[in-house]
Amino acid sequence: xxWLVHKNFTYDETYHPDFSKVESxxxxxxxxxxRMPFDARAGEIVAHLADELNPLxxxxxxxxxxxxxxxVRALIEASExxxxxxxxxxxxxxxxxxxxxxxxxxxxxxxxxxxxxxKSNVDIQYAPPEYQARTGASRYLRMKGEPRLVVDAAKxxxxxxWVSREFxxxxxVSDALMASFEATGVFKxxxxxxxxx
Length: 197
Prior knowledge:
- It is a single chain.
- This protein is of the alpha+beta class.
- The protein folds into 2 domains: 12-107, no CATH class; 117-196, no CATH class.
- Helices cover 18% and strands 31% of the residues.
- It is built from 5 helices and 13 strands.
- It has helices spanning 26-30, 70-79, 129-135, 153-156, 175-183, and strands at 2-6, 19-23, 45-49, 59-62, 65-69, 85-92, 103-107, 122-126, 139-143, 150-151, 161-162, 170-174, 191-196.
- The strands form 3 sheets. It has a 6-stranded mixed beta sheet with strand order 2-3-6-7-5-4. A 5-stranded mixed beta sheet has the order 10-13-1-12-11. A two-stranded antiparallel sheet has the order 8-9.
- Strand 11 (161-162) and strand 12 (170-174) form a beta hairpin.
- Helix 2 (70-79) packs antiparallel against helix 5.
- The N and C termini lie close together (10 Å).
- The mean pLDDT is 83.
């Protein structure tokens, strides 16, 4: 079974603290939605929180990009060792002290076009040339009405975390990885169960 997770991991904005300042390599700010590795030598991400959130979530967004806690990284790495990229990151509280748990910039490097549009409740929109040039996708899909998404089980077999060029703005997470999030108490993940055929 597969789960669909929003790129911010939760729709509840109260779980997304604001940042007063984020310093990051230019590539991190302009990179188009995962799939390609960053040059890790370009520098680290430094993020300064503007407000307090206690407990601090396991997922943060900085410059519209995801930061994940050390325990989330460990769970992802346990599922798919050395597959995805985790960029060095320092997060400071509003008093400029390091937050008590480590965070990493997450760059998901697996892209799979597995959504079966004809069996899902989605609008199919054909991509403009610039989108096709950046992603290689000729169309993109948007959920409509009652959420229902179906993926091709054969295409996602053995995978635990991936993105889709045709369905941007989300992660696809395996049942096993989602179960590990829940079992270890990873804080605040909103997910939609996805059917497989």
